[in-house]
Specification:
Shape of chain A: globular
Oligomer: homotetramer
Distance between the termini of chain A: 40 Å
Number of strands of chain A: 17
Radius of gyration of chain A: 23 Å
Helix content of chain A: 25-40%
Number of helices of chain A: 11
Structural class of chain A: alpha+beta
CATH class of chain A: Alpha Beta
CATH architecture of chain A: 4-Layer Sandwich
Mean pLDDT of chain A: 93
C-alpha cells in the first residue's frame, strides 16, 4: 500500500512529502518530476507569482543510483519566495504584538478556507490557515503524481490530461479517435491545454477580457488512462470501489466541485439501451467493449477500457470586485478590493488532476500485485495481462462446458 | 473513528454489517431503520422482487435497553428469498458438476461486474460475482445510514434526499426557499421522490413508456444536510478534505457515475464574481454566507451553510433489448434477451445517497468531537456551536485589535 | 489487506465477526473451526460455564460450495446461555428502574475493565462493560484464527501452541528437536496442553490445590510457526515490522501482560557472541541459520527460521478471597466475596495465542503476495520460495562478482 | 489521529519525518528536541560514530511563532557524515560497475536485516538494506517522541525511562517510592542511565571487560508515565487495546525482543490473590488502586495508575569474533572479522523507548479527546479529569441507588 503525507506552508522554507510503499528498483527520473512541476506553473491566464517560483524537486531519501530502494522517498520543493518571508514565517516564538501583526490576516476571503479554518483551529491570525490551504500544496501532489506516473509508464500504462472546457467554452472536437500521444501533443502545445485548437482563440480572448474585467474563470479537465490491467479496485466492499476512490482523489484538489466518469451526468438523460458497453472477444485482445460509456469502470473495477474521468474547477475566488466579508475581530463588514494575479488556473488544474489520478491508479495496482520489488511487479502485471486474455486459465474445475 | 464492513450475498441467508466506533448511550430506534429500509424498496418503476423482500433489521450486539453500549453493533437483514436458494448458495463443498451448474452464470452481462469480477477472482461461475456486486448490498448501507442519521438528528442536524432529475426530466421548482421538512414531505409523498409535483406526471409517463419499450432510465439525486457544525473535514491534508470523502461515498454507490457539490459542473460556466458566497455576521447567527454556490464546503470543510451534493445514477443495465456479450467458456458471441423487472431505481438511489452521506458526515463529526459517550459528544458539539458564533473566544493573545 | 471486526456481548444472542480481504477460492472447513473452538473450551482448571457453551460457528456469507468467494465472511457463534438472559440483554428501551436493576453491576471487580470502562463510557450499569470486555470475545478470535490457519496450512505453513509454564512450573523438556506435529500431539493429549509430560502431574496438583484455596494461576504459552516465506514484514517503516505487530496481537489477548520472541528477556543476560544466528547455505535449503536465538525474526522480518513467540497470561482475577473495591454510587468500600469457576485458563490461552498469531502472519503474507484468488497466492508463494533459495535470480545487473 | 512516516538512509543527506494530526497551538521547543537527540547519542559503551553526529533538528513546516499550526510538521535531521558518502549514496543513475562496487555489501551480517532484506527487495547490494535498517532511524523516532512528550508535559503528564538491567546486572533499588523527577535525575546523571547507583560500577566494569573481549551486551529498559487520564485505549475491539499498541511500539524498536507491562512475566509465578490491584476512593483523588501489579492498564485501558512498561534489547550483533556467514554471490562461507565501535546501546535504547511510548500515549489521548486546537484538548482533558473523580456525573438516569 502506498502512503504519503504532504507538508509545507506556502511561504515557508519548503514543501515536503514522504512517499512510503513504492517497490524497490523502480527507475526514478528527477527531470521528469521537474518537467511536471514546470507544467503546473504554465498556462495562459496565470499571473506573476508563477514566474518567481521555478519549482524543482530534491530527493533526500529512498533513491540510490537512479532507482528506488524500497524505503520511503522524501521529496522537497523549496519555496523560492521564502527569503522574503523569513521573519513572518519564523518558527521561533514571537511575543512582540507589533511584529506578529506583520502580514497578519483578520479579514477572511470568501471562497477560501480562511474563516472556517480560523474558527476550527482557534487561529488568531488567518495567515495560519491560508499558508496551508493555498493551492501551492498541489505542487507536492504533482511531484507524487510524477513519481507514480513513472511507475505506470514502466508498466506500459499511459495517462494524459487536458482542458475540455474553460470559461464556458467547450472543446468541440471528437477526441475518441486520437491516441493518447496525440492528445498529449496537442494539449502540450496549447497555451490553455486544450486539444481542440479551433476553440483556443475564443478561450484566450475570453481570458483576456475577463482579466480586464478583474474577474476569473473556471473549467473542466479530463484525465484518460490506458493500458490498465482488468480488475483494479473491487466490488466486494464499498471502500474498495475504484470509482469512489478516484472521485475522492479528484474532488480533494483545491477548488474542485464535481467529478464524473465516462458519460457522467449526461448518462441521466439516456436510455439504458444507449449506454451499454457491449462485450466482444478476440484471442489477441481478450475481452473488450464495443463502446466506453462507463469510462472504463464497471462494478467499481477497471474493465480494460480507457479510464475517463473529469473534474470541474470553480473560478478562483476573486477580490477584484468589492466583495462583502467581515473582520473577525471588529465584526464589521468591509468590502475587499484586493488585486490578484491569476485569471484562471484551469490549465494547471489539468496537470494536478492527472497527478492525483496517476497516484490513485498506482495505489490500486500495488494492492492487486506483489510489489516489494519492481521486477516482481512488472512480471506479475504482464503475466496477469496474458492470463486475462485467456480465460481457459481460470477454469479451475467447472462442469459441463467442455 | 467509525469503521464498518458490510457482508452478504444477494441470495445468501442474510446481509450483515458490523459498525464499530459509535458513542455509548446513543438511542437507537429499530423502527427508524426499518422505515428507511422500506423506503429503499419503494419507488415507481421497481419490479416485483422488491415485494418479496420486506427488509427488517435485527440487532444482535452493541445495543441494550435502547441505547448503544460503545461496543460494535451487528445489524442483520435476512434475505427472505434465500429459502429458494439454499442448495445453490450452500456453503458445503459440492463436487457434483451437474449440481454446481444449477443457476451457474457463464454469460456476463454488460454494465455489471460479472466479467471483470470473474477474471479478477478466477471464478468459474459468475454467480460468485453477481451475488456480491448486486445492489442488494445497498440495503446494508441504508441500515448504517439510518443509525448514523439517528445520531445526526440527536445533534439537531437534519438531512434529506430527493430526486431532481429522472429520465432526463428535471424538477423545475426552486427549492431553495423550502425547509428540509417540507422537502422531505414532498419527496415522501411523491411516487418518484421528486419535490416538484408539476413534473411528476411527465416522469411517470416516461417510466411507463420506457417499461413498455423494455428499456431503463437513470437520474440525478440530491442530498441536503443542515445544522452541521462549522469546520468538519480539514484542508491540512488531501485525504481529510470532506468534499473528497463525500465524493468517494457517493460514487461508491452501485451505478453512480458522477457527483457534484453546490453549483457543481455549472460553476465552470460562471465568472468568479458570480459564485462567491459573501460573508456576513450577526451575533445570533454567527458568521454565515449570503449565498451557497459552494454547497456548504470551503477548503474541504463545512462552512455552516447547508451541504448540498448530487449524484448521477446510470440507467440499470438492461437486457430486454438484445445485447452482445461473450460466453466466457465457448468465447462465442450471444445475444442476451433476458427480462428484468426494474425500469428505474433512481427513487431508491436517493435513499441510499442520503444514507452514505449521513454516514460520512457522522464520521467527520466523530473525528472532530469527543465521542466515547453520546452525552460528551452532544455537549461538545453544542458548546462548539456557541463558540463558533462568538470569535472573542479564540483571541488567544493577538495584538492590536482591541 | 485483511480487515476484521469482532462484535458481541457475552450474554447477548451471539458473537459475530466479518472478515474482509481473504482470497477467493480458499477451501474453508467449518469442522476445523469448530474443532478450534472446542479446544478453547477445554483445559484442566476450567469451571462449569464451558460445558454450557459448546461453541459452533455458522457462516452466513463469503463462502459457497466450500470455498471463499472473495467477498467478506460472516462468522456467527451463538451464545447458548442467552436464553436465560433475554430480558437482561434486551435491545428494547426499558424505562422501568426495577427491571433495569436486574443483574446490574455497580461494584467493579479489581483486575477487570469494569471500573475504567464505566467511567470512560459513562455507563451507569457496569454490566454494559463486562459483557464486552469478557474473554468470551476470544472465541471470535479463535474462529478467525482457524480460518487464517487453514490458509497457512494450504501454503504448507504449520503453526502450533502449547503451555510452557503454568502456576510457576515450567516444562523442562528440550523441545527444539521435536517436530511441530509431535509438539501438537503431545500438547493435544495433555489436559494442561504442556509438551513435557513429566511436569504435568505437578501442574495438575497445583491447580487442584489452588482451586481448593479459592485462588487462581497464570502461565506462559508459546506459539511456533514453520514454513513461512522469508521476508514477511519490513524494516522500512516502524509499523511494518512484523515483530511489533505480532507483539500487538499477542498483548491484545485478554489478561496478557508480556510477550517475547526467541530468547526474549533471557537475551539481556547473554553476550552478543552467544546469541548470533550464524548464516549457512545449501542449494536445497537455501540460506538458513545455525541457531534460532532471534526466534525467526531479523530486522522486523521473517528470516526463514521458525517464528517462536511467547506470551504471559496473568491469573484470572479472583474474588474468592475478599478483595477491596468501592461501590460506584455509594462510594463505600466493600469486600467482594463472589465465587467463580475457573482456576486457570492458560491452556485455553494457548489456543487463542495461536489464533491471533496465525491471523497476523496471514496478514503479512497477504501484504507481500498477490491474493485476489488463492490460486494466485499459492503460485506466488511457491515461486518466491524457489527464488529465495537461489539468489542468482536477484542479480539484476551488478558488476564484478562473477 | 496522529500519523507519521519516517524516512532517510543512514548515510544519505538527512533523516526526515512528517507528523500529521497534532493540534494547533501546541508550543514546540526545538531545544527540547535537540536535548533528547543528544541523550540518544550518549551512554557509556558507545563508540566513536556518535561523536561525529551531533544531531540537531530543523523544522520546515507546521510551526510558526513557536506553536503548531495544525498542519503537518516536517522534521529534518542532517546526517553530518553524508559529506563523505556523497558518491556512494548518490541518487543519480550509475552504470559504472566499478563505481557501484564502492562500499557495496555482499556479505550479510548475522543478526541484521541484510540478508532477508536483500532477498525480499531483490537488492544486488546489501547496502541498500542496511542504510535503512540501521538504528540510525531511531533518531527520528526520538524527535517525534520529543514533540509528543512536549504535548504530554503540557497536559501535566510526565514520562521517564531508565535502564533496569544491563549485561545481566539488575538495578536492585526499589524505585517505587521515588518520584518520576527523582528517577529522571538519577538516570540522567548515570553514565549507563541506571537509577540504582550501587550497581553502576559493576555495570561499567562489565562494559569495559566486554569491550576488551570484543563482545557486546544487551539489557532491559523501563518506561513509566504518570498523570494519564483514566480510560485511554478500549476493550471494545482488539486493535484498540492500549497494551497491545504499546507492545507494538516498543517491539518495533531495532533489536528489541520482548516487552512486558507491570509485573510482566513474573506474574505467571504468582497466585491471583497476589496480583490484584484493589480499588479505593477518596473525593480528592477519585478512584485509585492500592498496588500496581498490572502496570496501569486494565482491560486494555489506562486505569489512572502509572503506566509501567519494559522492553528487552538484545546485544548489538557483533562481528568482533569470527562469525559464519555466506557471500550472497559466491555462496561461499566466510568468517567475518570486522571491528565495530559500540559495546552496548542499552542506555540509548531507554531514550528511544521513552519516545515511542510517549508517541503512542499521545495517539491514545488524541483519539479520546477533541484536538483540533491545543486549547480545546487541554480543557477537555482537565474537565474529564474532574469528571472521572466524581462519578455522580455519570448517573444518567439509573434507578434505585439514590
Amino acid at each position: 500500500m502506498l502512503r504519503f503525507i504532504t507538508a509545507g506552508e506556502s511561504h515557508g522554507p519548503s514543501l515536503t512529502t514522504i512517499i512510503e510503499g513504492l517497490p524497490a528498483g523502480l527507475p526514478i527520473n528527477v527531470e521528469k518530476i521537474n518537467h511536471e512541476l514546470a507544467k503546473r506553473q504554465e498556462g495562459y491566464g496565470r499571473g506573476n507569482r508563477m514566474k518567481i517560483e521555478r519549482d524543482t524537486v530534491e530527493i533526500t531519501s529512498g533513491v540510490r543510483y537512479g532507482k528506488t530502494l524500497g524505503s520511503p522517498l522524501t521529496l522537497i520543493v523549496a519555496n523560492r519566495d521564502n527569503k522574503n518571508w523569513k521573519s513572518v514565517m519564523s518558527i521561533e516564538p514571537n511575543d512582540d504584538p507589533k511584529s506578529r501583526q506583520r502580514r497578519a490576516v483578520q479579514r477572511p476571503r470568501p471562497g477560501h478556507a480562511d474563516l472556517v479554518g480560523g474558527i476550527k483551529y482557534h487561529h488568531e491570525d488567518l495567515r495560519n490557515v491560508l499558508e496551508r490551504s493555498s493551492a501551492r500544496e498541489t505542487a507536492m501532489r504533482v511531484a507524487i503524481g510524477s513519481v507514480t506516473k513513472q511507475l505506470l509508464n514502466e508498466l506500459d500504462i499511459d495517462i494524459v490530461a487536458y482542458v475540455c472546457e474553460l470559461g464556458g467554452i467547450q472543446g468541440q472536437a471528437d477526441i475518441s479517435k486520437l491516441s493518447l500521444t496525440d492528445i498529449r501533443k496537442l494539449a502540450d502545445k496549447s497555451p490553455v491545454k486544450m486539444v481542440d485548437s479551433s476553440q483556443e482563440e475564443a478561450v484566450i480572448q475570453k481570458i483576456d477580457q475577463t482579466k480586464r474585467d478583474g474577474n476569473t474563470l473556471g473549467g473542466v479537465v479530463e484525465v484518460i488512462a490506458e493500458g490498465l490491467p482488468i480488475g483494479l479496485g473491487s466490488y466486494t466492499q464499498f471502500d474498495k470501489k475504484l470509482d469512489g476512490r478516484l472521485a475522492q482523489a479528484m474532488m480533494s484538489i483545491n477548488a474542485f466541485k464535481g467529478v464524473e466518469i465516462g458519460d457522467g451526468f449526461e448518462i441521466a438523460r439516456r436510455f439504458g439501451s444507449e449506454v451499454m458497453d457491449e462485450i466482444a472477444y478476440t484471442p489477441e485482445r481478450g475481452f473488450y467493449r464495443l463502446s466506453n460509456h462507463l469510462g472504463g469502470l464497471e462494478g467499481g473495477m477497471t474493465n480494460g477500457m480507457p479510464v475517463v474521468i473529469r473534474g470541474v474547477k470553480k473560478p478562483i475566488p476573486t477580490l477584484y470586485k468589492p466583495l462583502q466579508s467581515v473582520d473577525i475581530y471588529t465584526k464589521e463588514n468591509y468590502e475587499a478590493n484586493i488585486e490578484r494575479s491569476d485569471t484562471t488556473a484551469v490549465p494547471a488544474a489539468s496537470v494536478v488532476a492527472q497527478a492525483v489520478i496517476a497516484t490513485e491508479l498506482t495505489q490500486a495496482i500495488l494492492e492487486k500485485f506483489p510489489h516489494d520489488s519492481f521486477i516482481e511487479l512488472k512480471e506479475a502485471v504482464n503475466s496477469y495481462r496474458e492470463y486475462s486474455k485467456n480465460p481457459e486459465m481460470w477454469q479451475n474445475g467447472v462442469g459441463n462446458h467442455g
